Each structure stands twice: as structure tokens, then as C-alpha cells.
Amino acid sequence: MVASDEKSAAAFRTIGEVAAATGVAPHVLRYWEERFPQLRPVTRAGNRRYYRPADVALVERIAALLQDEGYTIRGVQQLLARERRTGRDRAASAAPEEPSPAPPPPSGGDLQGEAATMARVRVVRDWIAAALSDDEC
User: Which of 7, 29, 106, 112 could serve as 11's disulfide partner, Cβ 3.0–4.6 Å?
Assistant: First the structure.
């Protein structure tokens, strides 16, 4: 689960909240911050880390690549760097496209599943927006 029940999907998360939500221990999150330049939570007074939704999405992605896909740390570093370069190249050469129509709403009462899906969509949207704003700098 990405977001806790008490916070909105756009809220910042502490390292403990991210660890609980993703199953990645806090010491591993700190290690990943050293290894992945893309993972940079906001630090405030007392060196407290606050993870943005994009950071949480990146943690989930790194965890999936390492644990489920069998990548090494170096392999994930290379993959993320390549995606960043290709994304920049594509954004520079892409013409604006017609937006695809939204899929029809699901029939049935799976509101909890829909809420979880929407929370994930918002996290990915924020991650993309943050990546695009980083490229503009």
C-alpha cells in the first residue's frame, strides 16, 4: 500500500512510513540514497528525511527490480540512467499527441481497489512531473 489511511496520496512520508508501506528497511533506504542519485528525499531540520510520492514510487520500483526481477544494484543504476537519457531524448523529439480516451469506469463496487489504483496513478503522475521539472532545470 502506497498511502496510509490518514494521509493524502500527495503527502510527504517519513522514512518509517515508507519502510512500513514498501517493506524496505530504513537502513536499506539510506543505502539506496547513496547508490541511486534519483532517490533524493527532502531533508529538514535534524536530517529528517521526507519522501515525496515520486520518491516512494521510485523505492517501490527499485525494490521490484532488485527482489522480483533479479537485477543487481549496478544493473538498476544502469537501467534508471538509460531510462532518464531515453526519456529526455524522446521528450525533445516528440510531437504533441492526441490524448487517448479514458477507459470506461469499472462496473461493480470495488471502491477500495479503485482508490488504491487512483493513489498509484497519482504517485506515478507526480513522479513523471518531478522528472520533467528536473529536466527543465
Answer: 7
